[in-house]
Specification:
The chain is α/β, with parallel strands linked by helices. The chain is built from 16 helices and eleven strands. The chain folds into two domains: 3-62 and 161-234, HypD, alpha/beta domain 1 (Rossmann fold, 3-Layer(aba) Sandwich); 64-160 and 245-286, Rossmann fold, CATH 3.40.50.11740. Helices cover 37% and strands 18% of the residues. The structure holds iron/sulfur cluster.
Length: 350
């Protein structure tokens, strides 16, 4: 299927009119949980085209943004050790820790494009791969973590999305009418993984794709579900099925153990973390890292409110005042391409 089919002008107008016609006569707040959805929304001006009483917010769907300060500090500490190289994706090098990031001087840091690149690095030093991500990325980490690699270990911040959605509703009092669930995570975990959000909390969930028409279609199906009976709808059937990718799930289960995990902006969420099973490869154990929780937040930064859908970037004084941008990010939401502040900076947002 060609991408243009999902950007068809006539179908776009039809969907927008249907949404307008079917909106309930009240304000509706929808949370998507993915930076790629936010990119589509901003890049194609969907927020402006949708009814004014429909509010679209981003939840904790950027893995860089939800990585807590102490995990960045652990990577920074490792990067200062003799005989250690911290290898990670480029955006993670710029996430501020409590006092510095990985890009500051005096660090042994290499930017890599994949965990394989880190595992195959030719060096006599210990390579620690600092890897963040959700279930999709976990499935790419798992095969490498299940192999033996001499002089290689893993510092992870790997998470599961459904427990965070439940936690937002249960513990944070998040007031949303429904969710658009992330398509690529759902390819791995399957649409049924969100059943608890619907059945226990009565909030509809639509699994959505990333083209502009995908997002509009998901919004329409969500509105219908909000007005009627709360449902779980798979609106991304060309990539996602009910059960997900069984092979990927088995690899994740073999490499990782489900545990409680601390999320920036949300705190400890039961069963939301994927921790390495093989403790010999766990950099935290290998280097006896003992950095406790760190609630430090950059002055003036409202990332925590953005991550939880309570605020938008233009409500941050540093964003509005031009004092935070992708070259000089003050908070994590400005760092990576999935952070809401970064998306709004690149495409504009309202
Ligand atoms: S604009 Fe910068 S300082 Fe403001 S919330 Fe976003 S990342 Fe934080």
């Amino acid at each position: 299927m060609k991408a243009l089919e999902f950007r068809d002008r006539k179908r776009t107008k039809e969907l927008l009119s249907q949404i307008e016609r079917e909106m309930p006569g009240r304000r509706v707040k929808v949370m998507h949980v993915c930076g790629t959805h936010e990119s589509t929304i901003c890049r194609y001006g969907l927020r402006e085209a949708l009814p004014e009483n429909l509010e679209l917010v981003q939840g904790p769907g950027c893995p860089v943004c939800v990585t807590p300060t102490e995990r960045v500090d652990e990577a920074v500490e490792l990067s200062k050790k003799d005989g250690v190289i911290v290898a990670t994706f480029g955006d993670m090098t710029r996430v501020p820790g409590s006092s510095e990031s990985l890009v500051a001087d005096g660090k042994n840091v290499r930017i890599v494009e994949s965990i394989e690149d880190a595992a195959k690095m030719e060096t006599d030093k210990e390579v620690v791969f600092f890897g963040v991500g959700f279930e999709t990325t976990a499935s790419t980490y798992a095969p490498v973590l299940l192999e033996e690699h001499e002089g290689f270990s893993f510092l992870g911040s790997v998470r599961r999305i459904p427990p965070a959605m439940n936690f937002l509703l249960e513990e944070c009092g998040t007031n949303v009418d429904g969710f658009i669930a992330p398509g690529h995570v759902s390819v791995i975990i399957g649409s049924e993984a969100y059943r608890e959000v619907v059945d226990r909390h009565g909030k509809p969930v639509v699994v959505g794709g990333f083209e502009p028409l995908d997002v509009l279609s998901s919004v329409l199906k969500l509105i219908r579900s909000i007005k009627g009976e709360s449902k779980l709808v798979n609106d991304y059937g060309r990539a996602v099925d009910e059960e997900g990718n069984e092979k990927a799930q088995i690899l994740i289960e073999r490499a990782f153990e489900v545990k409680e995990s601390n999320w920036r902006g949300l705190g400890d969420i039961p069963d939301s973390g994927l921790e390495l099973k093989n403790e010999e490869n766990d950099a935290r154990k290998k280097f006896d890292l003992d950095i406790g929780k760190d609630e430090t937040r950059p002055e003036g930064c409202i990332c925590e409110e953005i991550i939880t859908g309570q605020s938008k970037p233009d409500e941050c004084e540093l964003f509005a005042g031009g004092k935070c941008d992708p070259r000089n990010p003050v908070g994590p939401c400005m760092v990576g391409s999935e952070g809401m502040c970064n998306v709004w900076y690149r495409y504009g947002g309202t």
